[in-house]
């Protein structure tokens, strides 16, 4: 017996995979303990569906990490299979060879990560090398495939992943990040080319790349993780488990179709959400947090949702995922939302502008410090500081009727960190007639100063901002983010007590709202 075959049985102190740094924001390595959490979830689902049988005792189950980086998922799967198949395949070297050649497969996302994954799994970057724990491979790559493929350029971008040609049309010696799983129109045929025409995987598991750096100028614009999920589902395995950013739940440009299909498909069995990504990936900030899910081909029905905040688990709660057009992350908010929406009132975003109300970008700088005849006041935020300048009225070409209205200007972006209670939104500004603003603000428009101040009082309530928070998953608040906030009459100063009574919010629900949303003093408008 090759003594190295016992590599998974020996302690690793320290485990090198807990020490390696991430290569980039696109390639976030998964800590071993988190990979094992996902494997535990998979094992529980398998046992439930198979009369208590262990997936790790089944010699026929095939696993694929289709975007392997460090090889941590494949290594931990192999460790479990080595223990689980001990009775069925008593001889250790035979058992290891069976697992590594017939059960565990990977696709590298770069040449470097494919070598790292082979080193983690085979104890050698060459699967057939003298130091490899496998003795049956005929090739250096073993079952961890990687070859450079090319983007398909169309109009300056890749037609598969949206990568900009200006950044990723590179020399052969440089990584171009054209990932195999999402650069094909026929994923089943592609997998057949890589691993054999009759290959059918039972489990797809891993941590895909999240975005293409530089794509379309923003995080949500360049997101690609959903493409990996869609391709994985197209392969029709029994189970899929992935860790991905949580922003798909309520945001992300181009995510609407994915979100609708993912939530309404009925195959999500488990969803585990971490609003603060640092709880999973220390030192890595992923806006809106991260989650992992278990997709079960045979499951049809409610999903068990668990949320972790500060190490505390909330749930699991069995939930219907497609109740709304977005996913409400915290199940404790549902009863409050149901009470408010049951009144069937017009939403407040009916008097709220959309993006760039007056056609002036956030970085607009053609304003002056002193007012001249024919000018209008310009409210702006630049370098995180608010200011007021002046521009000629005839500069404005958009939303002309709003210029002479009373307005409540509300910041389009606010990031107060992950700690709770949270302010949710930036402080508003009451703007008089003969004023405009840059893209940094959205605009509530009304007729009088009294109405503007009434809207401001409503905006400052915890309930208003709590309702916004259910749709605000990143720092940005768009017009649609306010669509669950109902209109009120603008002849009073609104308080939470008035709103709690109107909507029948219970004492426990009030306490929950106040634990999540802190008070806002808007008297100075700063």
UniProtKB/TrEMBL annotation:
Residues 103-281 form the Type II methyltransferase M.TaqI-like domain. Gene3D superfamilies: Vaccinia Virus protein VP39. Belongs to the N(4)/N(6)-methyltransferase family. Coiled coil: none annotated. GO terms for biological process: DNA modification; methylation. This is site-specific DNA-methyltransferase (adenine-specific). Keywords: Endonuclease, Hydrolase, Methyltransferase, Nuclease, Plasmid, S-adenosyl-L-methionine, Transferase. It holds the Pfam family Eco57I. Its EC number is 2.1.1.72. InterPro entries: DNA_methylase_N6_adenine_CS, MethylTrfase_TaqI-like_dom, N4_N6_ade-DNA_methylase, SAM-dependent_MTases_sf. It catalyses: a 2'-deoxyadenosine in DNA + S-adenosyl-L-methionine = an N(6)-methyl-2'-deoxyadenosine in DNA + S-adenosyl-L-homocysteine + H(+). Signal peptide: none annotated. PROSITE patterns: N6_MTASE. It comes from Sphingopyxis macrogoltabida. It is an enzyme of class 2 (transferase). PANTHER family: DNA METHYLASE (MODIFICATION METHYLASE) (METHYLTRANSFERASE)-RELATED, DNA METHYLTRANSFERASE YEEA-RELATED.
């Amino acid at each position: 017996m090759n003594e190295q075959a016992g590599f998974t049985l020996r302690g690793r102190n320290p485990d090198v995979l807990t020490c390696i740094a991430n290569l980039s924001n696109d390639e976030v390595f998964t800590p071993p303990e988190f990979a094992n959490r996902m494997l535990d979830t998979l094992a529980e689902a398998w046992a439930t569906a198979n009369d208590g049988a262990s997936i790790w005792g089944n010699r026929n189950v095939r696993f694929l990490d289709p975007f392997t980086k460090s090889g941590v998922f494949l290594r931990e799967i192999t460790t479990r299979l080595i223990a689980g198949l001990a009775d069925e395949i008593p001889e250790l070297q035979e058992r290891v060879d069976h697992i590594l050649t017939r059960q565990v497969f990977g696709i590298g996302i770069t040449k470097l990560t494919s070598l790292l994954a082979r080193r983690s799994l085979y104890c050698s970057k060459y699967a057939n090398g003298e130091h490899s724990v496998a003795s049956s491979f005929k090739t250096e790559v073993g079952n961890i495939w990687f070859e450079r493929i090319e983007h398909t350029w169309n109009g300056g971008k890749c037609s598969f992943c949206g990568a900009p040609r200006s950044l990723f049309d590179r020399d052969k010696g440089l990584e171009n990040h054209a990932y195999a799983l999402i650069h094909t129109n026929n994923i089943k045929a592609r997998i057949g080319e890589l691993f054999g025409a009759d290959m059918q995987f039972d489990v797809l598991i891993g941590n895909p790349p999240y975005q293409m750096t530089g794509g379309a100028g923003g995080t949500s614009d360049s997101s690609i993780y959903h493409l990996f999920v869609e391709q994985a589902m197209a392969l029709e395995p029994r189970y899929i488990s992935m860790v991905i950013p949580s922003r798909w739940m309520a945001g992300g440009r181009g995510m609407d179709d994915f979100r609708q299909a993912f939530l309404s498909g009925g195959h999500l069995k488990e969803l585990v959400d971490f609003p603060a990504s640092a709880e999973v990936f220390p030192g890595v900030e992923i806006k809106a947090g991260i989650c992992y899910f278990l997709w079960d081909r045979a499951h049809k029905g409610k999903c068990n949702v668990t949320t972790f905040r500060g190490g505390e688990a909330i749930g699991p709660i069995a939930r219907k995922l497609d109740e709304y057009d977005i996913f409400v992350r915290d199940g404790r908010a549902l009863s409050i939302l149901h009470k408010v929406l049951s009144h069937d009132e017009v939403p407040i975003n009916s008097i709220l502008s959309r993006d760039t109300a007056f056609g002036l970008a956030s970085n607009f700088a053609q304003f002056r410090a002193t007012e001249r005849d024919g000018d209008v006041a310009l409210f702006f935020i630049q370098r995180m500081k608010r200011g007021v300048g002046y521009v000629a009225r005839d500069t404005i070409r958009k939303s002309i009727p709003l210029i002479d209205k009373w307005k409540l200007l509300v910041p389009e972006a606010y990031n107060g960190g992950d700690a709770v209670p949270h302010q949710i939104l930036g402080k508003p500004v009451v703007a008089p007639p003969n004023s405009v603003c840059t893209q940094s603000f959205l605009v509530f428009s009304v007729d009088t100063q009294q109405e503007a101040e009434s809207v401001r009082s409503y905006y400052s309530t915890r309930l208003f901002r709590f309702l916004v928070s259910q749709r605000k998953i990143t720092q940005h608040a768009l017009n649609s983010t306010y669509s669950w906030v109902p209109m009120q009459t603008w002849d009073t100063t609104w308080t939470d007590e008035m709103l709690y009574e109107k909507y029948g919010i219970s004492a426990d629900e009030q306490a929950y709202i106040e634990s999540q949303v802190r008070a806002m003093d808007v008297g100075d408008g700063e």
